[in-house]
């Protein structure tokens, strides 16, 4: 008799527990499994509804699958070739960049600033060993800053404007 009651109790717990389980669910336009010799991965395309909760230091996005990206934007980028040293900071920048160059002939150096689409936004001769380049009129985006000696490109810096 006790065995029968124990069996019924276990069955009750099992079935009542299964009805309370929830899994991820989303309305997608496409998705599936991809596999090959290196392994397999699942993918989803076109998630219609999602929300993002943000705080000062972090954010959490609701969704079925999210990419995991690690990237680093350095605050100071340095270029050294022979006796020419080019330093640009801060990166990411708010309103201005500081370009510091040592060991060059001032008459032969210039800079060019391009947007992400390759459109030239600014170009000037470098006349001192430390210049401040204004970014306050630019929208937050990624820009490319080229240092040029004569007709030769010395270095291209990737700049992030906050």
Give a short overview.
The chain is mainly beta. The protein has 2 domains: 26-70, no CATH class; 77-161, Immunoglobulins (Immunoglobulin-like), CATH 2.60.40.10.
What topology emerges from the helices and strands here?
Layout (H helix, E strand, L loop, with lengths): L1 H17 L11 E7 L2 E7 L6 E3 L4 E3 L15 E5 L2 E6 L6 E7 L6 E6 L5 E6 L4 E5 L6 E9 L2 E10 L1
Antiparallel strand pairs: 1-2, 3-4, 5-6, 6-7, 7-10, 8-9, 8-11, 11-12
Kindly describe this structure.
The chain has two domains: 26-70, no CATH class; 77-161, Sandwich (Immunoglobulin-like), CATH 2.60.40. It is 10% helix and 46% strand. A four-stranded antiparallel beta sheet has the order 5-6-7-10, with no helix packed on it. Strands 9-8-11-12 form a four-stranded antiparallel beta sheet, with no helix packed on it. A two-stranded antiparallel sheet has the order 1-2. It has one helix and twelve strands; from the N terminus they run H-E-E-E-E-E-E-E-E-E-E-E-E. With 162 residues, it is mainly beta. It has one helix at residues 2-18; strands at 30-36, 39-45, 52-54, 59-61, 77-81, 84-89, 96-102, 109-114, 120-125, 130-134, 141-149, 152-161. The termini are far apart.
**Rg value:** 28 Å
Helical percent range? 10-25%
**CATH H-level superfamily title of the largest domain:** Immunoglobulins
Judging by the overall fold, what is the CATH architecture of the largest domain?
A: Sandwich
**What is the CATH class name of the largest domain?**
Mainly Beta
Q: Compute the separation of the termini in Å.
A: 73 Å
Poorly predicted runs: 70-76
Order of strands, main sheet, comes to 5-6-7-10
Number of helices: 1
The ordered H/E elements are HEEEEEEEEEEEE
> Got a strand count?
12
Compute the average pLDDT.
75
Q: State the shape.
A: elongated
Biggest beta sheet summary:
4 strands, antiparallel
Beta strand %: over 45%
């Amino acid at each position: 008799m006790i065995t029968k009651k124990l069996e019924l109790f276990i069955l009750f717990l099992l079935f009542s527990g299964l009805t309370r389980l929830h899994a991820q669910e989303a309305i997608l336009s496409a998705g599936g499994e991809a596999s090959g010799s290196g392994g397999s991965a699942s993918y989803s395309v076109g998630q219609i509804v999602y929300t993002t909760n943000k705080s000062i230091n972090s954010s959490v996005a609701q969704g079925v699958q999210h990419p995991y990206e690690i990237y680093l934007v350095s605050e100071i980028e340095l270029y050294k070739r022979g006796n020419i040293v080019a330093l640009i900071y801060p990166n990411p920048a708010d309103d201005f960049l500081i370009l510091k160059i040592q060991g060059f002939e001032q008459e032969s150096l210039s800079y060019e600033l391009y947007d992400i689409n390759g459109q030239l936004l600014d170009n000037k001769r470098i006349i001192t060993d430390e210049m401040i380049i204004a970014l306050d009129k630019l929208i937050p985006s990624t820009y490319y800053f080229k240092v040029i000696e004569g007709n030769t490109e010395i270095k291209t810096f990737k700049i992030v404007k906050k």
